[in-house]
Amino acid sequence: MAGVKDGIWKRGNNWYISVKVNGRRRVKSFGRDRKAAELALAEILKHRAVANATNDWSGLAEFTKPKPRKTFSEVAEDYLAERASLKYSTLRGYREVLKNYLLPSFGKMEVSDITEEDVARFQAEVSKDVSAVRTNNIMGLLRYIMKVCLRRKLITENPTVGVRPLTEKQPDIDPLTKEELELAISKIAPHYRPLFTCLAWTGARPNELFALRWKDIDFNRGEIRINKGRVSGSEDLPKTASSSRIIQMLSIVRTALEQLKGRDTANLDGYVFTTKSGQPIDKHLDHVWRTALRKAGLRHRPSYQLRHTFASLCLQSGVAPGWLANVLRHSTLQTTFKHYARFIKDTCRENEARMEQLLTPSERRQAKA
Protein backbone atom coordinates (compact mmCIF):
# COMPACT_ATOMS: atom_id res chain seq x y z
CA MET A 1 0.00 0.00 0.00
CA ALA A 2 2.79 2.37 -0.93
CA GLY A 3 1.81 6.03 -0.83
CA VAL A 4 -1.16 5.41 1.48
CA LYS A 5 -1.30 7.76 4.45
CA ASP A 6 -2.14 6.89 8.03
CA GLY A 7 -5.85 7.23 8.56
CA ILE A 8 -9.32 5.79 8.61
CA TRP A 9 -11.67 4.96 5.77
CA LYS A 10 -14.91 3.18 5.05
CA ARG A 11 -15.49 0.47 2.48
CA GLY A 12 -18.96 -0.94 2.12
CA ASN A 13 -20.32 -1.08 5.66
CA ASN A 14 -16.94 -1.59 7.35
CA TRP A 15 -14.42 0.86 8.81
CA TYR A 16 -10.67 0.36 8.48
CA ILE A 17 -7.52 2.01 9.76
CA SER A 18 -4.15 2.08 8.01
CA VAL A 19 -0.98 2.78 9.98
CA LYS A 20 2.72 2.43 9.21
CA VAL A 21 4.34 0.61 12.14
CA ASN A 22 8.06 -0.16 12.37
CA GLY A 23 8.51 0.31 8.64
CA ARG A 24 5.53 -1.79 7.54
CA ARG A 25 2.02 -0.65 6.73
CA ARG A 26 -0.71 -2.38 8.69
CA VAL A 27 -4.46 -2.44 8.05
CA LYS A 28 -7.12 -3.43 10.56
CA SER A 29 -10.89 -3.77 10.21
CA PHE A 30 -13.37 -2.62 12.88
CA GLY A 31 -16.59 -3.70 11.21
CA ARG A 32 -19.34 -1.10 11.44
CA ASP A 33 -17.89 0.59 14.54
CA ARG A 34 -16.42 3.90 13.36
CA LYS A 35 -15.85 5.15 16.90
CA ALA A 36 -13.74 2.09 17.76
CA ALA A 37 -11.65 2.64 14.63
CA GLU A 38 -11.05 6.30 15.51
CA LEU A 39 -10.06 5.49 19.09
CA ALA A 40 -7.75 2.68 17.96
CA LEU A 41 -6.04 4.94 15.42
CA ALA A 42 -5.40 7.61 18.05
CA GLU A 43 -4.03 5.04 20.50
CA ILE A 44 -1.73 3.48 17.90
CA LEU A 45 -0.35 6.83 16.79
CA LYS A 46 0.40 7.67 20.44
CA HIS A 47 2.21 4.35 20.99
CA ARG A 48 4.08 4.76 17.73
CA ALA A 49 5.43 8.15 18.77
CA VAL A 50 6.80 6.60 21.97
CA ALA A 51 8.19 3.58 20.09
CA ASN A 52 9.99 5.78 17.56
CA ALA A 53 11.72 7.57 20.42
CA THR A 54 12.55 4.52 22.56
CA ASN A 55 12.67 1.72 19.97
CA ASP A 56 10.30 -0.21 22.24
CA TRP A 57 7.52 -1.61 20.07
CA SER A 58 5.93 -3.82 22.73
CA GLY A 59 2.93 -1.50 22.96
CA LEU A 60 2.21 -2.24 19.32
CA ALA A 61 2.71 -6.00 19.46
CA GLU A 62 -0.59 -6.65 17.72
CA PHE A 63 0.56 -4.64 14.73
CA THR A 64 4.17 -5.80 14.61
CA LYS A 65 3.67 -9.55 14.93
CA PRO A 66 3.72 -11.42 11.61
CA LYS A 67 0.33 -12.14 10.11
CA PRO A 68 -0.65 -15.79 9.70
CA ARG A 69 -0.30 -16.74 6.04
CA LYS A 70 -2.18 -19.55 4.33
CA THR A 71 -2.75 -20.54 0.76
CA PHE A 72 -6.25 -20.66 -0.66
CA SER A 73 -5.93 -24.43 -1.00
CA GLU A 74 -5.18 -24.82 2.71
CA VAL A 75 -8.10 -22.64 3.76
CA ALA A 76 -10.43 -24.46 1.36
CA GLU A 77 -9.53 -27.84 2.86
CA ASP A 78 -10.12 -26.46 6.36
CA TYR A 79 -13.47 -25.09 5.19
CA LEU A 80 -14.62 -28.48 3.90
CA ALA A 81 -13.32 -30.36 6.94
CA GLU A 82 -15.38 -28.14 9.24
CA ARG A 83 -18.49 -28.82 7.16
CA ALA A 84 -18.25 -32.59 7.06
CA SER A 85 -21.82 -32.85 8.37
CA LEU A 86 -23.26 -31.33 5.19
CA LYS A 87 -25.17 -33.56 2.78
CA TYR A 88 -22.93 -35.79 0.70
CA SER A 89 -24.20 -34.27 -2.55
CA THR A 90 -23.45 -30.76 -1.28
CA LEU A 91 -19.89 -31.65 -0.28
CA ARG A 92 -19.36 -33.46 -3.56
CA GLY A 93 -20.52 -30.35 -5.41
CA TYR A 94 -18.13 -28.16 -3.40
CA ARG A 95 -15.20 -30.45 -4.16
CA GLU A 96 -16.02 -30.42 -7.87
CA VAL A 97 -16.10 -26.62 -7.89
CA LEU A 98 -12.77 -26.48 -6.07
CA LYS A 99 -11.12 -29.04 -8.32
CA ASN A 100 -12.38 -27.68 -11.64
CA TYR A 101 -12.48 -23.93 -11.01
CA LEU A 102 -11.20 -22.41 -7.77
CA LEU A 103 -8.01 -24.35 -7.08
CA PRO A 104 -6.55 -24.02 -10.59
CA SER A 105 -6.92 -20.24 -10.29
CA PHE A 106 -6.31 -19.55 -6.60
CA GLY A 107 -5.01 -22.76 -4.99
CA LYS A 108 -1.34 -21.80 -4.69
CA MET A 109 -1.97 -18.13 -3.90
CA GLU A 110 -1.80 -16.87 -0.34
CA VAL A 111 -5.28 -15.63 0.51
CA SER A 112 -3.88 -12.25 1.55
CA ASP A 113 -2.59 -11.78 -2.00
CA ILE A 114 -5.94 -12.32 -3.73
CA THR A 115 -7.29 -8.98 -4.96
CA GLU A 116 -10.65 -7.76 -6.16
CA GLU A 117 -9.17 -7.58 -9.65
CA ASP A 118 -8.22 -11.27 -9.44
CA VAL A 119 -11.77 -12.17 -8.43
CA ALA A 120 -13.39 -10.04 -11.14
CA ARG A 121 -11.09 -11.54 -13.78
CA PHE A 122 -11.89 -15.05 -12.57
CA GLN A 123 -15.64 -14.45 -12.74
CA ALA A 124 -15.34 -13.05 -16.26
CA GLU A 125 -13.35 -16.08 -17.44
CA VAL A 126 -15.71 -18.62 -15.86
CA SER A 127 -18.79 -16.93 -17.33
CA LYS A 128 -17.44 -17.51 -20.85
CA ASP A 129 -17.94 -21.26 -20.48
CA VAL A 130 -20.91 -21.72 -18.14
CA SER A 131 -24.27 -20.09 -17.46
CA ALA A 132 -24.80 -17.14 -15.15
CA VAL A 133 -26.48 -19.45 -12.64
CA ARG A 134 -23.52 -21.82 -12.62
CA THR A 135 -21.05 -18.92 -12.44
CA ASN A 136 -22.86 -17.47 -9.42
CA ASN A 137 -22.83 -20.87 -7.72
CA ILE A 138 -19.07 -21.15 -8.23
CA MET A 139 -18.58 -17.61 -6.98
CA GLY A 140 -20.77 -18.38 -3.98
CA LEU A 141 -18.27 -20.93 -2.68
CA LEU A 142 -15.42 -18.46 -3.23
CA ARG A 143 -17.34 -15.82 -1.25
CA TYR A 144 -17.97 -18.24 1.63
CA ILE A 145 -14.29 -19.18 1.86
CA MET A 146 -13.11 -15.57 1.76
CA LYS A 147 -15.58 -14.67 4.51
CA VAL A 148 -13.93 -17.34 6.65
CA CYS A 149 -10.53 -15.81 5.86
CA LEU A 150 -11.75 -12.39 6.97
CA ARG A 151 -13.24 -13.75 10.17
CA ARG A 152 -9.96 -15.48 11.01
CA LYS A 153 -8.00 -12.32 10.25
CA LEU A 154 -6.09 -13.97 7.41
CA ILE A 155 -7.10 -11.01 5.26
CA THR A 156 -8.02 -7.42 6.06
CA GLU A 157 -10.54 -6.99 3.25
CA ASN A 158 -12.78 -9.44 1.46
CA PRO A 159 -11.85 -9.21 -2.24
CA THR A 160 -15.20 -10.65 -3.35
CA VAL A 161 -17.33 -7.87 -1.85
CA GLY A 162 -16.97 -5.49 -4.77
CA VAL A 163 -17.66 -8.12 -7.44
CA ARG A 164 -21.38 -8.23 -8.16
CA PRO A 165 -23.16 -11.50 -9.01
CA LEU A 166 -24.21 -11.92 -12.62
CA THR A 167 -27.81 -11.34 -13.62
CA GLU A 168 -29.45 -14.72 -13.99
CA LYS A 169 -31.83 -15.44 -16.82
CA GLN A 170 -35.09 -16.90 -15.59
CA PRO A 171 -35.38 -20.58 -16.56
CA ASP A 172 -37.64 -21.25 -19.52
CA ILE A 173 -41.02 -22.67 -18.58
CA ASP A 174 -41.84 -24.66 -21.70
CA PRO A 175 -44.39 -27.35 -20.79
CA LEU A 176 -45.97 -29.89 -23.07
CA THR A 177 -49.65 -29.84 -23.89
CA LYS A 178 -51.73 -32.76 -22.64
CA GLU A 179 -51.77 -34.22 -26.17
CA GLU A 180 -48.00 -33.86 -26.53
CA LEU A 181 -47.46 -35.44 -23.13
CA GLU A 182 -49.60 -38.46 -23.94
CA LEU A 183 -47.81 -38.94 -27.26
CA ALA A 184 -44.33 -38.60 -25.71
CA ILE A 185 -45.10 -41.02 -22.87
CA SER A 186 -46.39 -43.59 -25.37
CA LYS A 187 -43.01 -43.54 -27.15
CA ILE A 188 -40.91 -44.17 -24.04
CA ALA A 189 -39.33 -47.61 -23.66
CA PRO A 190 -41.74 -49.80 -21.63
CA HIS A 191 -39.27 -50.33 -18.78
CA TYR A 192 -39.06 -46.59 -18.06
CA ARG A 193 -42.62 -45.59 -18.98
CA PRO A 194 -43.96 -45.86 -15.39
CA LEU A 195 -41.19 -43.57 -14.15
CA PHE A 196 -41.93 -40.86 -16.69
CA THR A 197 -45.65 -41.24 -16.09
CA CYS A 198 -45.07 -40.55 -12.40
CA LEU A 199 -42.78 -37.60 -13.18
CA ALA A 200 -45.50 -36.11 -15.36
CA TRP A 201 -48.42 -36.64 -12.98
CA THR A 202 -46.98 -36.12 -9.47
CA GLY A 203 -44.85 -32.98 -9.81
CA ALA A 204 -42.03 -34.82 -8.04
CA ARG A 205 -38.41 -34.09 -8.89
CA PRO A 206 -36.44 -36.84 -10.67
CA ASN A 207 -34.03 -37.39 -7.77
CA GLU A 208 -37.00 -37.80 -5.40
CA LEU A 209 -38.46 -40.63 -7.48
CA PHE A 210 -35.03 -42.23 -7.94
CA ALA A 211 -34.93 -42.67 -4.13
CA LEU A 212 -38.51 -43.92 -3.83
CA ARG A 213 -39.00 -47.34 -2.21
CA TRP A 214 -42.10 -49.47 -2.00
CA LYS A 215 -42.34 -48.81 1.74
CA ASP A 216 -42.95 -45.15 0.82
CA ILE A 217 -46.11 -46.04 -1.10
CA ASP A 218 -49.47 -46.66 0.59
CA PHE A 219 -51.92 -48.05 -1.97
CA ASN A 220 -54.73 -48.22 0.62
CA ARG A 221 -54.55 -44.50 1.31
CA GLY A 222 -53.46 -43.61 -2.21
CA GLU A 223 -50.35 -41.79 -0.96
CA ILE A 224 -46.71 -41.46 -1.96
CA ARG A 225 -44.32 -40.31 0.77
CA ILE A 226 -41.46 -38.14 -0.51
CA ASN A 227 -38.69 -37.94 2.10
CA LYS A 228 -35.31 -38.13 0.34
CA GLY A 229 -33.46 -37.74 -2.93
CA ARG A 230 -30.85 -39.81 -4.78
CA VAL A 231 -27.95 -38.15 -6.60
CA SER A 232 -24.81 -39.84 -7.97
CA GLY A 233 -25.30 -43.00 -5.95
CA SER A 234 -25.95 -41.27 -2.64
CA GLU A 235 -29.22 -40.65 -0.82
CA ASP A 236 -29.77 -37.52 1.21
CA LEU A 237 -32.58 -35.98 3.16
CA PRO A 238 -34.30 -33.09 1.40
CA LYS A 239 -32.55 -29.72 1.46
CA THR A 240 -35.27 -28.38 3.80
CA ALA A 241 -37.72 -30.08 6.11
CA SER A 242 -40.60 -28.65 4.07
CA SER A 243 -39.48 -30.66 1.02
CA SER A 244 -40.68 -33.85 2.73
CA ARG A 245 -44.30 -34.33 1.77
CA ILE A 246 -47.10 -36.72 0.90
CA ILE A 247 -48.41 -36.77 -2.66
CA GLN A 248 -51.87 -38.10 -3.45
CA MET A 249 -51.92 -40.62 -6.31
CA LEU A 250 -53.91 -39.83 -9.41
CA SER A 251 -55.46 -42.89 -11.03
CA ILE A 252 -52.90 -42.84 -13.87
CA VAL A 253 -50.09 -42.92 -11.29
CA ARG A 254 -51.71 -45.73 -9.32
CA THR A 255 -52.04 -47.81 -12.50
CA ALA A 256 -48.38 -47.26 -13.41
CA LEU A 257 -47.22 -48.22 -9.91
CA GLU A 258 -49.45 -51.28 -9.72
CA GLN A 259 -47.96 -52.50 -13.00
CA LEU A 260 -44.48 -52.09 -11.53
CA LYS A 261 -45.49 -53.86 -8.34
CA GLY A 262 -45.94 -57.01 -10.36
CA ARG A 263 -42.28 -57.11 -11.35
CA ASP A 264 -39.74 -59.17 -9.42
CA THR A 265 -38.08 -56.55 -7.20
CA ALA A 266 -36.96 -58.72 -4.30
CA ASN A 267 -33.29 -58.14 -5.06
CA LEU A 268 -33.52 -54.40 -5.66
CA ASP A 269 -33.44 -53.20 -2.07
CA GLY A 270 -37.03 -52.10 -2.41
CA TYR A 271 -36.48 -49.40 -5.04
CA VAL A 272 -39.56 -48.64 -7.11
CA PHE A 273 -37.68 -47.44 -10.19
CA THR A 274 -34.51 -49.13 -11.45
CA THR A 275 -32.36 -49.44 -14.54
CA LYS A 276 -32.93 -52.33 -16.95
CA SER A 277 -30.18 -54.23 -15.14
CA GLY A 278 -32.02 -53.85 -11.84
CA GLN A 279 -29.78 -51.19 -10.31
CA PRO A 280 -30.95 -47.96 -8.66
CA ILE A 281 -31.09 -44.98 -11.00
CA ASP A 282 -28.33 -42.49 -10.21
CA LYS A 283 -28.66 -39.91 -12.98
CA HIS A 284 -31.28 -38.30 -15.15
CA LEU A 285 -32.49 -40.41 -18.05
CA ASP A 286 -32.40 -37.59 -20.58
CA HIS A 287 -31.34 -39.99 -23.34
CA VAL A 288 -34.56 -41.96 -22.83
CA TRP A 289 -36.61 -38.77 -22.97
CA ARG A 290 -34.82 -37.41 -26.05
CA THR A 291 -35.42 -40.66 -27.91
CA ALA A 292 -39.13 -40.57 -27.06
CA LEU A 293 -39.53 -36.98 -28.25
CA ARG A 294 -37.75 -37.78 -31.49
CA LYS A 295 -39.98 -40.79 -32.15
CA ALA A 296 -43.03 -38.67 -31.37
CA GLY A 297 -41.91 -35.95 -33.78
CA LEU A 298 -41.85 -33.35 -30.99
CA ARG A 299 -39.20 -30.69 -30.50
CA HIS A 300 -36.70 -31.30 -27.74
CA ARG A 301 -37.35 -30.06 -24.23
CA PRO A 302 -35.41 -31.19 -21.13
CA SER A 303 -37.12 -33.87 -19.08
CA TYR A 304 -37.38 -31.41 -16.17
CA GLN A 305 -40.15 -29.75 -18.19
CA LEU A 306 -42.35 -32.61 -16.99
CA ARG A 307 -42.56 -30.88 -13.60
CA HIS A 308 -43.57 -27.67 -15.37
CA THR A 309 -46.04 -29.65 -17.47
CA PHE A 310 -47.68 -31.00 -14.32
CA ALA A 311 -47.96 -27.48 -12.90
CA SER A 312 -49.38 -25.95 -16.08
CA LEU A 313 -51.96 -28.71 -16.58
CA CYS A 314 -53.08 -28.39 -12.95
CA LEU A 315 -53.60 -24.65 -13.23
CA GLN A 316 -55.27 -24.84 -16.63
CA SER A 317 -57.76 -27.31 -15.16
CA GLY A 318 -58.66 -24.85 -12.40
CA VAL A 319 -56.62 -26.27 -9.52
CA ALA A 320 -56.05 -23.70 -6.76
CA PRO A 321 -52.51 -22.20 -6.90
CA GLY A 322 -52.18 -22.70 -3.15
CA TRP A 323 -52.71 -26.45 -3.51
CA LEU A 324 -50.15 -26.63 -6.31
CA ALA A 325 -47.60 -24.64 -4.29
CA ASN A 326 -47.96 -27.19 -1.50
CA VAL A 327 -47.54 -30.17 -3.85
CA LEU A 328 -44.48 -28.66 -5.52
CA ARG A 329 -43.21 -27.52 -2.12
CA HIS A 330 -42.56 -23.97 -3.22
CA SER A 331 -41.31 -21.86 -0.32
CA THR A 332 -43.99 -19.23 -0.96
CA LEU A 333 -47.11 -18.86 -3.09
CA GLN A 334 -45.30 -15.98 -4.79
CA THR A 335 -42.89 -18.51 -6.32
CA THR A 336 -45.80 -20.37 -7.90
CA PHE A 337 -47.27 -17.17 -9.37
CA LYS A 338 -43.85 -16.04 -10.55
CA HIS A 339 -43.33 -19.17 -12.65
CA TYR A 340 -46.83 -20.18 -13.65
CA ALA A 341 -49.15 -17.15 -13.55
CA ARG A 342 -49.86 -17.31 -17.29
CA PHE A 343 -51.30 -20.82 -16.94
CA ILE A 344 -53.86 -19.96 -14.26
CA LYS A 345 -57.35 -20.57 -15.58
CA ASP A 346 -59.50 -17.48 -16.02
CA THR A 347 -62.25 -18.14 -13.48
CA CYS A 348 -63.78 -14.67 -13.35
CA ARG A 349 -67.23 -15.89 -14.42
CA GLU A 350 -67.12 -18.80 -11.99
CA ASN A 351 -66.05 -16.51 -9.15
CA GLU A 352 -68.85 -14.06 -9.94
CA ALA A 353 -71.33 -16.94 -9.81
CA ARG A 354 -70.01 -18.03 -6.43
CA MET A 355 -70.31 -14.48 -5.07
CA GLU A 356 -73.88 -14.32 -6.34
CA GLN A 357 -74.67 -17.37 -4.24
CA LEU A 358 -73.78 -15.36 -1.14
CA LEU A 359 -76.71 -13.03 -1.79
CA THR A 360 -80.18 -13.86 -0.55
CA PRO A 361 -83.04 -14.05 -3.09
CA SER A 362 -84.37 -10.67 -1.92
CA GLU A 363 -80.94 -9.06 -2.31
CA ARG A 364 -80.68 -10.39 -5.85
CA ARG A 365 -84.18 -9.06 -6.67
CA GLN A 366 -83.26 -5.63 -5.30
CA ALA A 367 -80.09 -5.59 -7.41
CA LYS A 368 -82.14 -6.22 -10.56
CA ALA A 369 -84.75 -3.58 -9.70
From TrEMBL:
One of its GO terms (molecular function) is DNA binding. This is Site-specific integrase. Residues 171-353 form the Tyr recombinase domain. Signal peptide: none annotated. InterPro entries: CB, DNA_brk_join_enz, Integrase-like_cat_sf, Integrase_catalytic, Integrase_recombinase_N, Integrase_SAM-like_N, Phage_Integrase. It comes from Candidatus Obscuribacter phosphatis. Belongs to the 'phage' integrase family. Gene3D superfamilies: 1.10.150.130, Intergrase catalytic core. Residues 70-150 form the Core-binding (CB) domain. Keywords: DNA integration, DNA recombination, DNA-binding. The lineage of its organism: Bacteria, Bacillati, Candidatus Melainabacteria, Candidatus Obscuribacterales, Candidatus Obscuribacteraceae.
